[in-house]
Model the fold of this input.
Amino acid sequence: MDDLRFSTDIILLYVNPTDKCNAACPYCYLPEEIKSRQKSMSYAELKQVVEKAIDFFDKKGAKGVIVFHGSEPLMNRENIFRIISEYHGKLNFGIQTNGLLLTEEDARFIMENGVNIGISLDSPNEETNDFLRGRGHYKKVIKALDYFKDYKGLNVVTTITKYNLGQLVDMVGFLGERGIRVCLMNPVRGTQKESLSFRPDPEELAARFIDAVDAAIELTKSGRRMVIGDFANILLGIIAPGARVLMCDISPCGGGRRFFAITADGKSYPCGEFIGMEEFSGGNIFSDSIEDILGSDGLEKVRKRVVEKIDECDTCVLMNICGASCPAEIYSTEGSMFRKSYYCKFYKKVIEHAFRVILRGDVWHVIRRSALKERFDIENV
Done:
């Protein structure tokens, strides 16, 4: 457990290839001053980032991952596709997009190159979704999802707010009908003041989220597999902590430890939620080595943030499953990372439900046995 929690083993870089965005989501976690810069990385700048990453991962004997993240990465489509074409054998790539710019040709390129893609969709209801994501977003994304039909590298990302809270079960059915296998349902973070009014009540959130989890399990039992990735990760935190993929719900979190984020001007931060908080900046990828960035005070601050130093969390039996996330959100709202999460009651209730899922024998309808066998090279799972 100590190795899982405290080792610094970077496996992924989040790279924002542009500050530009073609949407105006009212709960966006990026500061307006960042998006308004309109900076985009050139091909040469992206190449420098990628080649530094390859050198870093080669020294570790690993094939690392770069996820092109946002603002909206496809506003720098030509350069990122060129980079993927040239380096896809040396790195694994992912793209997180709002889907507004995706074309059928883009989808073919992404699938041919084995790129993982996350597409944002907040509601199965067009009116609700477009309120949260912008007019026309719903129709664009539905078309984009058709382009990726049956593609295993696709997942849908749903940001949960008080406006779509009552639609999570419907979302599970909606995505299941379209053959979507994985959905991430992330509670909105209050990193920016504008997003605070979008946060749902934690206990109501838990009830609705649990309903969606159970709906996904029933859908899987019927033969159409559907996994809510956030819940699967919590379940893994109980039965196989070392298999966890998402690193938000662990202490210290994965920021600056398993990944870090790079903005279009080259600045580095522990993760995307910290962008704009200069006290956490770790240097600049164009002038600093990855090793120097990892050794910076900015990233070290987040690696030192542990639940044992947080009142109430320090005596909680669930501390190593929850992790009191997200430190960036808590720092933004409380002025210190060493406070319990606004979503504390949400996490407690969801973790309690994870134990119920285990007790009733439904765990393998969330997690694949084959994945654990392969990960740990064991037979009797």
